[in-house]
């Protein structure tokens, strides 16, 4: 007789369990402890490493296949899996691994709610397993730091397994383990479960779509000379653009780049008159990112009158560009920003701006303010 050193967290002391050998591992299930209550946990010993593996459960898939008979004892089996003994187990000092790894609020095996952990792991595994069996780790799941002591792989168990029991049978056939019967207290069970220890891998779709990549990378092309095929001159400064991008969002740009116009020539520099460089760059940034331009993040009701007038002026410049280049959404954004700026001092000016830029919403706000000015 020898007593080998076994690493990992030891299972809780018990009797009446099953220990099934399969594929270089020993699968321990069930049994009864010192309190005469039954367990329903699954523990796995790696015979080569002589280590108890970390086992996590998730009920997202049916790793356990329930073949329960249609007898009266079926209700007993289900009731046995929902009582409160698990609460006693998680407070036992020798059973701290199960309590630390689970968010268990009942008695069913495989209902520990660790799907988020599984999803995080599956993206790093080329042979991740799910859909009816183990999700087992490999060397890829070990810590990247070779100095880390914890190199025990983690086993992910899917599905709802057998309830607490002892004295049952567990038989290994090929890659499956068949569990039948047993008892828990005075209840004798006749349910039947099958554990698939090597389920087929599942194909996942977790990479970004072409549209997601386009949206993510488009913002990087803002005012970027690389790949640009059109250059704008605004107040003597160059602003780089891409005809395809600009034509997709603006019919004005599309017409500008149509064959027959001077602006359609390759490498042409297009001068944009009657426009500030800051306003034009804000519009271009909006086109490439879809975000509200920074110049719109101003306090138009500032107690400093000069600052308020300056802020209104920047938004008006952008509103005029949005109308000029047929950017309706940006135009509405500017209208909404200018709405609270309508006052007795600004209503005439903003009403003129609204009429000039065909800003129907802003014009309606100004008209309403004027109608109710004396009331």
From TrEMBL:
Xref: InterPro entries: BTB/POZ_dom, Kelch-typ_b-propeller, Kelch_1, SKP1/BTB/POZ_sf
Segments forming domain BTB: 228-291
A Pfam entry, by short name: Kelch_1
SMART domains for the chain: BTB
Keywords assigned by UniProt, alphabetized: Kelch repeat, Repeat
Region (Disordered) location: 97-116, 121-145
Protein name (Swiss-Prot/TrEMBL): BTB domain-containing protein
């Amino acid at each position: 007789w020898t007593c080998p050193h076994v690493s990992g967290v030891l299972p809780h002391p018990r009797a009446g369990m099953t220990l099934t050998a399969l594929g270089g591992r020993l699968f321990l299930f069930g049994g009864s402890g010192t309190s005469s209550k039954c367990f329903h946990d699954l523990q796995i010993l790696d015979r080569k490493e002589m280590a108890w593996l970390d086992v996590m459960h998730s009920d997202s898939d049916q790793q356990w296949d329930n073949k329960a008979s249609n007898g009266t004892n079926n209700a007993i089996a289900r009731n046995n899996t929902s009582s409160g003994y698990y609460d006693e187990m998680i407070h036992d000092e020798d059973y701290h691994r199960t309590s630390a790894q689970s968010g268990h609020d009942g008695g069913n095996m495989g209902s520990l709610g660790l799907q988020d952990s599984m999803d995080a792991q599956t993206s790093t595994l080329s042979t991740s397993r799910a859909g009816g069996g183990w999700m087992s780790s490999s060397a890829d799941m070990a810590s990247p730091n070779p100095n880390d002591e914890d190199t025990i792989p983690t086993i992910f168990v899917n599905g709802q397994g057998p309830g607490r029991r002892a004295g049952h049978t567990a038989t290994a056939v090929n890659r499956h383990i068949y569990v039948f019967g047993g008892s828990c207290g005075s209840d004798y069970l006749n349910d039947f479960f099958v554990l698939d220890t090597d389920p087929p891998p599942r194909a996942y779709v977790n990479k970004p779509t072409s549209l997601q990549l386009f949206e993510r990378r488009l913002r990087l092309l803002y005012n970027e000379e690389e790949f640009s095929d059109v250059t704008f001159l605004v107040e003597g400064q160059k602003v780089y653009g891409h005809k395809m991008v600009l034509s997709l969002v603006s019919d004005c740009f599309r017409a500008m780049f149509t064959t027959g116009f001077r602006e359609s020539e390759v490498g042409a520099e297009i001068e944009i008159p009657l426009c500030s460089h800051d306003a034009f760059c804000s519009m271009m940034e909006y086109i490439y990112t879809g975000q509200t331009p920074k110049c719109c993040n101003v306090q138009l009701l500032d107690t400093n009158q000069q600052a308020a007038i300056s802020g209104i002026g920047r938004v008006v410049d952008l509103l005029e560009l949005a109308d000029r280049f047929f950017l309706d959404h940006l135009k509405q954004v500017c209208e909404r920003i200018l709405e609270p700026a309508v006052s007795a001092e600004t209503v005439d000016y903003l009403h003129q701006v609204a009429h000039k830029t065909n800003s129907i919403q802003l014009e309606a706000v100004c008209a309403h303010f004027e109608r109710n000015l004396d009331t």
